[in-house]
Amino acid sequence: MCEALKTQYQVNEEIGRGRFGTIFRCFHPLSNEPYACKVIDKSLLADSTDRECLQNEPKFMTLLSPHPNILQIFDVFEDDDYLSIVMDLCQPHTLFDRIVNGPISETQAAVLIKSLLEGLAHCHRMGVAHRDIKPDNVLFDSADNLKLADFGSAEWFGDGSTMSGVVGTPYYVAPEVVMGREYDEKVDVWSCGVILYIMLAGIPPFYGDSAAEIFEAVVRANLRFPSRIFRNVSPAAKDLLRKMICRDPSRRFSAEQALRHPWILSAGDTAQLT
């Protein structure tokens, strides 16, 4: 752990652990505020990809801060052995924990997906694609504000360039990524659409028994709304899903377009849309 970190913050108990490091609760004596501190052990970084992810996260989080729906970074300390990032202190439960036990109401889903799209639209305006949008990377602070986190796979496209490389998580990754094509920031909108589908259905739209089978289903992109699952879901919600989980990226909504959709603007109140 960096000595400079310990001179400015009081580092307290461990609150989480990841592949490359440990997250501690810490306290800033001057501001009297609690924070989270991610301490990354550089000796665990096996290859250049890992090292690039390590450098990406603080770089992109600093560029994107502050925004109410992006995890904010406050300090970075680095020495030869460790990188320490001081960030917003969030609840231990992620969006995954909130939706893993089955569908939630349209009004709940609309509030959550709007906050996620607000954060995402900000990223895209700043020229950053997240590339690994999934419920595990969506956190909540003590006031229950949604915070998009984990920018280790993020990429800069602000000069109008396209991106490449298979990055992401099987259930949520867009078909153009799986097919090895060049792609743009709309891969993030696809992933958000998949999250919204899971919120409303309790199951993912494309699935299989292995990563290969899931990828095959994603590439086919045969989006269905089984009546036994979707019988109580509004036509407006299904319309938005079709526009976000659209196989053709040129016809897929941007984050800004999704935010202007009637279902989002009505906060999922289907009575307003009839």
Automatic annotation (TrEMBL):
Pfam families from the UniProt entry: Pkinase (PF00069)
CDD domains for this protein: STKc_CAMK (cd05117)
InterPro entries: CDPK_Ser/Thr_kinases, Kinase-like_dom_sf, Prot_kinase_dom, Protein_kinase_ATP_BS, Ser/Thr_kinase_AS
Transmembrane segments: none
Start and end residues of each Protein kinase domain: 9-264
GO molecular function annotations of the record: ATP binding; protein serine/threonine kinase activity
Residues annotated to bind ATP: 38
Organism domain of life: Eukaryota
UniProt keyword list: ATP-binding, Kinase, Nucleotide-binding, Serine/threonine-protein kinase, Transferase
Gene3D superfamilies reported for this sequence: Phosphorylase Kinase, domain 1, Transferase(Phosphotransferase) domain 1
PANTHER family: SERINE/THREONINE-PROTEIN KINASE
Record-stated family: Belongs to the protein kinase superfamily. CAMK Ser/Thr protein kinase family. CaMK subfamily.
Protein name as annotated: Protein kinase domain-containing protein
Species assigned in the record: Vigna angularis var. angularis
Native organism taxonomy: Eukaryota, Viridiplantae, Streptophyta, Embryophyta, Tracheophyta
